[in-house]
Every structure is written in structure tokens, then in C-alpha cells.
Amino acid sequence: MTDTRDEESRPQGPKGGFGTIRLLFLAPLLDALADVGQRIDPLLREQGMFRAQLETPYEIVPLHRYVALLEAAAAKFDRPFLGLQMGAGFGLSDLGPFYALLRASGNLRGALDYLALFQSRLQSRTLFESKRGTDTTTYTYRIEDERVWPRTQDSEFALSGYVHLARELVNAKWAPRAVHFEHAIEGREDQLADYFRAPVSGNQLANSLVIDNDDLDTAFATSVPSEDRKLRTIMEWHLLDLMGPEAAPSESFVSLTRDIISRWLGRTHIDCATVAAELKLSERSLRRRLTEEGTSFRELLQDARKERAETILSKPGVSLAVAAEQLGYSDTAAFSRAFKEWTGTSPRRFPGKG
Q1: Is the peptide bond between 62 and the residue preceding it cis, with omega within 30 degrees of 0?
Q2: Which pLDDT does position 250 carry in this prediction?
Q3: Which residues contact 300 (CB under 8 A, 6 or more apart)?
């Protein structure tokens, strides 16, 4: 049978659509650059944004344009630590009604869990998740689209912003155990360490805050548990309604499958059956839908692994064993064979690994 679906419903380009972000996060940029006045306006217009949009903070704009705006502003106005400056000035009051919800969360873990709950509504195609260990919990922030690069200012804004919020909720001297950035930080170490008051490392697989569990689970000094539970429930309902539903996914099953693979890659086993289950399809149905759209699950998984592999290997200091683990390979030999098949060269010879 001839496929008569509208061509616009098909995947546009090889890697799916970009994410979005709420204009709520434009205000910290303009605050940090208040001294440059209207000289920022041409950069805003280039990315399709305007000062007047601050009146509609929940309006969404393309994430890649916002990230590009931060990088362009940092370069134009010679502000290499623009993102850090934005985060240091981004407090609870800038979150609007989220202020009360985070205050009522009871402890720092609860507050960060609420930020994770609303992540997809505030900024799509972006990971914010936690992994709890014996003594610490690691909170990871990463834009899941590798095309959005460079993104130094956004990453430093995100982590410094989380830390500033934590200091307002706990105390002004609070500090994480360690801080990791996905970008290189040569020449930036002292200023970053001075702000975070913790060891800072670069060229990591993701942007992360390592936080002591005791810090996360200690009740806020002003916490009133019975009242907080009622307030949290009321605020959560109202905020979910205010923010509206999560961004509607593309009708393309290729795009949906890519998004799931990107989210799970390196964190759990991925196969067609489990992806189909998340999409509430049978494995056979998903394979048929992907075939109709001109690809296969294996091709999408290999594309995601290749893209992630090239990103990981471009960062100095990352071993092949770590790269293999992050891409779901059982050992470095299997990863090396696959990488050579993709690129025609050994991962040890890949640019950046010399």
C-alpha cells in the first residue's frame, strides 16, 4: 500500500528535532549583562528573542538558540564566566511560584527532586537525574542533543544555579562534595573552585554535582512537616497545570526511538523490546513502524553509539574502557571493532586521543 502520510510528519534531518527552553531563563542573562544595556539586543534578535518576551516567562524558544545566545554574549562582551555569573545571581525568587514549592520540600533532596520532576516542562531534551550511592548522590545535568555545542556557559549556569539555590535553602556556606563538567576547564579551575568551594574537574562525561547524602536528607530549619505536605501537594497541582503538558513528541517513531535511546544509553541495557514497551507497542509493531520510516532499530542504536563515541573520545583523558561502558559494550575489544567499522579507524587514533 502506498504511504500517503504528510511529508511533514516524517523525520526532518538525520537526528530529530531540537529541544526547547522556557523564557524564564532569559532574565538571568539580561541581569548579568545589565551594564551593557541595549547592546545585547542585536544578539537577542539574531536568535529570535526580544526583551518584551520577559513578560511571558513560560513561553518556549528553541534550546539551541538560547545556548548559542549565551556563547555569543560571552564572546562579544568578553565575559568568559558569564554562565557562572548568571547562576550566582539566580535565586529562589527568580523561580516565581516554584519558590514556595522548593521551600516546602522539607530537605535539599526533596527540592532537587522537584526540579527533576519539572525538568522536561522547563527545558526539554535535557537530562537532570540523580544516582544515589552509599555516602553521596550524584546529580547529572546534560543536554541530550550533541549538536548543541559548544555549551560551556549553559553548563556552568546550570550547576552554579543549582548550588546557589541550595545555599539559599540550606545555608550560604553550603558546598557540594565535587563538581564535574563535560567541557575543558583549563585556565578556569581557580575561579570555578572558588565559587563551588569544592574540587572541580573538566572533560567529564556529563555535568554533575556530587552531594553528601547527609546534606540532602537533613530537614530545613524552617520545615513544618504536616503543613509542608499539604502545601507541596497544592503547589504541585497548580504548577503542573500552569506549565501545561510536556512538549508533545514528534509523530515520527524514529524521533521517539532516538530520544529513548539517547536517554538510556550508558545507563541501562537497551534493546528493541524495552524501547517498544516504553512506547506501549509490541516489538514487532515498532520494527514495522521504523521500517516504514526507512530505518531500523539497529541502525538508530548504532548511530547513537557512534555519535556519543565521537563526543566521548574527543575529550582528553577519557579511557577506552570508560567509553565502552558508557556505550553499552561488554569490553574495549567489542567497542574498538564497532568504532573501526563506523569510521575506518581505531578509536586510539581518533582525533583527540593522540
Answers
A1: no
A2: 46
A3: 254, 257, 258, 261, 290
